[in-house]
Amino acid sequence: MSSASASAAPRPGPGPSPGIDKGNLAVRVASALVFAAFFFTLLYLGAQPWTKFVFLGLLAAALLMGVHELTLMGRKMGFTPSFAAGALAGWAILLHFFLAGYDARDPLPLWVVLAGAAIIIHFGALFFERDLEKALPSQAITWMGALYMGLATGFMMKLFMFTDTGLTNTGGRLVLALFLITWMGDTAAYFVGSLLGRHKLARHVSPKKSWEGAGGNLAGNVLAAFVIKAFVCTHWSAVDAVAIGLLLGVAGQLGDLAESTWKRSANVKDSNMGGLSIPGHGGMLDRLDSLAFAAPVFYAYVHFIHGLN
User: Which of 51, 77, 139, 280 has a Cα-to-Cα distance from 305 of 20 to 30 A?
Assistant: First the structure.
């Protein structure tokens, strides 16, 4: 074909929507229901002191899985991040948020945690890092795993520890709001994008995501926020519901895209890298990518707008 005829050929338009994978959808729903039954029961009982320790254990396990997945990605790319150092530093960050929720004097200040993490990650590498040419990216990935998972789970823990509003079980209500708003947005994005998606949102990062799906995501976030306003956080105003829905929706989608860039960089489809996974949902990072960005945004809103400490 000549260059003239090639230039005259029509360019392909937006691709058709991929449709819904019904088999995978059934597995996703089944595993989600099993987890939801346990998780929502925990939140319902959140006013009980022992639930704080159960939630801490749940988050600690999620952190361990997330750091492990990031470590495997880094190793697949030829680097040598430390799983042990990343997990210990991440757990210390999570513990800071847990203890701060019990004692306003902050018995484990964050600066102490970060200084200790630096000692573990950098000085530990002096003895165990054998390939010095990869020391900088390897330690950077270790830090990212600790900070990403530590702060993500830490802010969830901080929300769960809140008790100072006129409503009972404030922490359980807030964590329920965070998860329900974020997950309803993800669910709406999946269905809208599968059925109506035509225009790619970030073709080079995540080819399946579309602008239509992003719009459906935000609509699902705002709808869920109004459901929360009606039945859970009844002191919210309509402005709160819209603002929280949009803020969590934007933050969650940015988190999803950020994790997609890491998987694209490591050339993997699921973050679990063939290890422990959630049936129909992939790895832990695939489940927490939206929540990792949404949790600190939600905390900032209830802290600065509603005055929770």
Answer: 51
Tokens of 77: 């790319």
- Secondary structure (3-state) at 282: strand
Among 26, 56, 268, 284, smallest CA distance to 161 is for 56
Exposure string of 146-179, with b = 16+ CB inside 10 Å and e = fewer, is bbbbbbbbbbbbbbbbbeebeeebbbbbbbbbbb
Residue 104: per-residue pLDDT: 76
Cα distances (Å, whole numbers) of residue 251 to 217, 247, 287, 298 = 11, 6, 14, 9
What angle do the packed helices 284-304 and 135-161 form, to 10 degrees? 50
Question: Could you tell me the pTM of the whole model?
Answer: 0.86
| Residue-range domain boundaries for the chain | 38-161, 165-309
* pLDDT mean for each 10 residues of the chain (309 residues): 43 51 59 73 83 94 95 94 96 96 86 95 78 87 97 96 81 93 90 82 79 92 96 94 97 93 87 63 84 97 91
- Is residue 308 within 8 Å of residue 164, measured between CB atoms? yes
